[in-house]
Specification:
By secondary structure, the protein is of the alpha/beta class. It has 2 domains: 145 residues, Aspartate Aminotransferase, domain 1 (Alpha-Beta Complex), CATH 3.90.1150.10; 241 residues, 3-Layer(aba) Sandwich (Aspartate Aminotransferase, domain 2). Helices cover 41% and strands 14% of the residues. The protein has 13 helices and 15 strands. The protein has a 7-stranded mixed beta sheet with strand order 2-8-7-6-5-3-4, sandwiched between helices. Strands 14-10-9-15 form a 4-stranded mixed beta sheet.
Length: 398
Amino acid sequence: MAIYLDYNATTPVDPAVLDAMLPHLRGNFANASSVHSPGQRARAAVDEARESVAALIGAKAAEVVFTSGGTEADNLAIFGVVAASNSSRRHVITTSIEHHAVLQACQALEKQGVDVTYIEASNPSREGVVDPEAVRRAVRPETVLITVMHANNELGTTQPVEEIGRIAHEAGILFHCDAVQSAGKLPIDVGAIRTDLLSLSAHKIYGPKGVGALYVRSGSRVEPLFRGGQHERGLRPGTENVAGIVGMGKAAELAPRRLAEDSARMAALRDRFETALCENISGIRVNGDSERRVANTTNITFPGASGESLVIALDLHGIACSTGAACSSGAIEPSHVLLAIGLSEDAARSSLRFSLGRTTTGEEIDRAIALVPGVVERLRALSPRFAAMPPATVGRGN
């Protein structure tokens, strides 16, 4: 039986979510913008889902804009705020460990003449947590946006977004928070964070793929990415994905009910997994902050074993995990997150992310504990470089 430990990549659709979606894939298929009765029933379903998503993050329903996913939500926030701003405000602050949806959007802005400051997350302990004072020091009169993720998708580490939000608020700067990996794992209150924009994705919280949302605080100026209609407050034209939106609404409704129980159980399983691997595999290192992180994620460096080879070998043993590396032009690049927190290219290429989920069992974790050391040992035996390496210290990232 397969052991799926890649929940940060995507989650299975919860049965209750599927049940909520099915009527809108069958009989209730009307366009939510149509004025006839079937259309109004579809509109009512979308409105109900919007209420559920808003409740998940402590927002007003009118402040939730549905998108095609977290990537579009990030892009709408970043490009939309800059496009709507005064031409004299052409500076954005972000971090070096953001998701590519944020980093590549910022890189595109740079090509348009926008200045971007990338706050480093590297320090001697390699925790991967940004210093809020570094954000404060980067603020300029022309700064229009600060964009910092809540939880990192590779490390699981959480950022001090409340402090960063306070800094942005005091300076009169809009703050965007990518909460794709924290929703459903941590309580979120947009008021407490003082964020003006916040990105979500349904398929990270046991909802369907292809739908997400952007929270836009009332009064925040954002230009749409697309043209073609007045859907979603004029910020996201196009016929609404009613079934997907309903699924996201149901997933958002279920998430807070399961949060405390799921988090405690996953943290215990993750810690058991980490401890056992550290005891049975020499030289490994757990990356990131061992305390300040979401409950389901661990990122581990296995010196002397290629991460890509480990993923393939573990898959052959029925274990699904991830390197966290990006694939570009057929070449596997080392994780930009791991490089940003100070790992060497070799260490970054030898690291794996294991992420647990709602359906992960203790039996699965025990099975993975039994299998992973042997796979690592076999790959190390094939590596002449590992034989020449000095003994490494087993440890954590902090």
